[in-house]
Amino acid sequence: MHESLDGSRIIDRRETSDGTLTVWSQRGVSRLLRVDGIPAASWSENPLVSPRQSSEILSVVLPLVVHERPERVLQLGVGGGEGLRAGLGFPVNRIDCVEPNRGLRGLVAADAAFDDVRLSWRHLSSALDVSSGSGDYDVVIATSVAPVSWRSESIRTVEFYRNVARQLAPGGIFCQVLSQRDVGSTAVTVPHATIRSAFGLSVQVQVGSGRVLVLASNGDTLLDRSGFVGRLQGPHVRAALSEMGWDWANVLQLPVQQMSEQSEGAIYHVGSGWLAAKLPVAALSGGMSQDKALFPARPLLNLVTVEDEWVAELRERLADLLKGQKLLSRGSDGFRTYRSAVDQQIIERPRFVFESDSNQGFRRSRHPVDRRRQQFLRVLGAIEKAEEPTPDQIEQVMSFAEPFDPLLSEFVHREAAALWLKRSGDTAAGELPYRLHAVYFGRQSVDSVEDVHMAIRSLLRVEPTLGEAAVLWDHCNALLEVLEQRWSVDLTRRGGAVKAAVTIELVGELFDRMDSLVELDPRLGDRWVHRREVIELGLIEPLRIRRSQRPLPRRVTRILAN
């Protein structure tokens, strides 16, 4: 059924003592894990093409940045491995990962990135692990578990949270990922109220897709800790965030909520059990309704102290973030004008810093961010003058994608794709990853349909082989799904009829390519007839109607009857 509706393709299935694990391929390089058929986690095999899972990464990055000096970390559940991977990028002394399912560890944590001497594993349930003694951890992280699953029952009780509190060192932080998607806010408010009974301080941080992080501590402060903004700009933090397509300033815009005192009574015990009985029913009926009893959300920036040395830097960064989002929202027009916008900003609003000089004491020089942007424009201008850019020159352009810059990074991938297109010969394989990046990391708006069109054209120029047939198939399905999502936003914008005609034509060519991929690998043809019918009804038919409703010319003369 999933293969017909959204183009997901099952690539692995394992029977373990804890349940049936299935891995589904999405977007060519993304993976979705289902446990007994219930979506449990996701991860990206290649963050250059598809972004990493945001809630998992933030569940690790945020508490590790908030804490002044984390050394020992306890992670309860491996999830999709994204958070653990990000945590290993921090300068911590030890990470203990508790995962009861050995088969799951083999699925998501088998590559060399997890081969780290600081990482140790314990294979037992999270509730049992935290009940045994005190670990003196600086940070404890509980990864997301589907709220309708029986596995989540033992990690949302007051007994569990009290045991977690005993595991923390003074000033330590607990972070749990909770999901209310499909079941309603009760799946978040009840565990949060229970957490409040075990911890003196707690907040909710909304991270999108119906998920929130609940951060808690028994220390004197929770979020407002000295040096937070400076730590947020660390190279390891920026590297982890860039794989989600985020800048460090994005974290400061996360909405934060606190629970009101009216929710104090909703405490969940081991013997309660009513969430396990009601949430699966709620998922089938569209969710449970309950008063959230939360204070209005405020950005994280309003809850932390910004030191004087970072005020100007933060103000400029937030302005850059806003300008970058506006340029990206303009689609192809934003790509054509971003260079002049960056150059104009450097000229009209130059920034300078004072640097120590052994001869003169101090000297004034241009801000490192402005210097880097100027260097990028010079390098790109020089390479564009070449008749045929070399792969090394394109890599030189790509080197400016990291660390993340809100005015450059997303456009750098588009520039690399354009340079590959300028080369002679068969260059589609080099161009395609950057076109796919623009789509998968892009904004969901009709204006960005043009990015999808360019990615499809690039994919159609790639010569399919048996070894790459499955990956190309997944990208074809993913691009069809993205087209359907983005066209569903708004079908009434000016120029929609023209874009609709182009989309219909490209989808037809994509169907032909998928037929050829089925000939290469017949296993891909399973449910292809049903999948094609879903695309015809959900995407092609509405676009044909839109194409037939062309607007009248601007000058319409009135026809008078005799």
Q: Could you walk me through the main structural features you see in this protein, from its secondary elements to its overall organization?
A:
The protein folds into three domains: 37 residues, no CATH class; 215 residues, Rossmann fold (3-Layer(aba) Sandwich), CATH 3.40.50; 181 residues, no CATH class. Helix content is 45%, strand content 17%. It has 21 helices and 15 strands. The N and C termini lie far apart (61 Å). The C terminus is likely disordered.
Layout of SSEs?
Layout: H1 2-5, E1 9-16, E2 19-26, E3 30-35, E4 38-44, H2 54-66, E5 72-76, H3 82-87, E6 94-98, H4 102-108, E7 119-122, H5 126-130, E8 137-142, H6 158-167, E9 168-179, H7 186-196, E10 201-208, E11 211-217, H8 228-232, H9 235-242, H10 248-251, E12 255-257, H11 274-285, E13 298-299, H12 308-329, H13 332-348, E14 352-357, E15 361-366, H14 368-384, H15 391-398, H16 409-422, H17 428-440, H18 449-461, H19 469-487, H20 496-520, H21 528-548
Parallel strand pairs: 5-6, 5-8, 6-7, 8-9
Antiparallel strand pairs: 1-2, 2-3, 3-4, 9-11, 10-11, 10-12, 12-13, 14-15
Helix pairs in contact: 12-13, 13-14, 14-15, 15-16, 16-17, 17-18, 18-19, 18-20, 19-20, 19-21, 20-21
